[in-house]
Write a structure and sequence with these properties.
It is a single chain. This protein has about 220 residues and is mainly alpha-helical. It is built from seven helices and three strands; from the N terminus they run ααβββααααα. α1 packs antiparallel against α7 and α4 crosses α7. The radius of gyration is 20 Å and the shape is elongated. The mean pLDDT is about 95.
Amino acid sequence: MYIDFYYVVLVMPALLLSLWAQFKVKSTFAKYSRVKSSRGVTGAEAARLLMQSNNIANVSIEPVSGSLTDHYDPGHHVLRLSQPVYNQTSIAAIGVAAHETGHAIQHARGYGPLGLRSTLVPVANIGSSLGPWIAIAGFALSFPVLFNVGIVLFAGAVAFYLITLPVEINASSRAMAILKQNQILTPEELSGVKKVLTAAAMTYVASALTAIMSLLRLLLMRRRR
């Protein structure tokens, strides 16, 4: 029976870390979703207040279905908040809303890595979905050119994951700073928000590590071939 040694040694540990990170962010969010903020503002209201304090008037706030599906759409200037965030007054909801507002502030301030990440989205979509399969096909068929094409495509996806890290960390840092500056949460509540955002950051670290290990696996397979 064939065993992919590189997958077991490189990719599988990263996947396990990714699963743990997903569990951690969901459990941490659930924990602090049960802690109501002292001011009683909802996630949407907090985002609106924070954008007003940063002179951002061209971004609309909309609800979106799902859980932890919150995101900022720079192409349409829309901040979309999930149901557990939009209408809820928990410190978890306010923290997530502030994080996404951080992306809106990045966009308004011309934060370079955010623009680069947006540019890489089409490359990442193609590279992550097709790159590994093309590379494996080239490996199986002993077709080096096809293998190299797959590696190059997947490398574009890896670049996206890597640039995502500073973008997300910076957004969380902005979130903590503007929440404190505008006194929307107490110091004790901010401590809970920090735990939620730190758990969320771990999911991006795990995703980047998984992508890097997967690319390294392909490169080692190419070298062996």
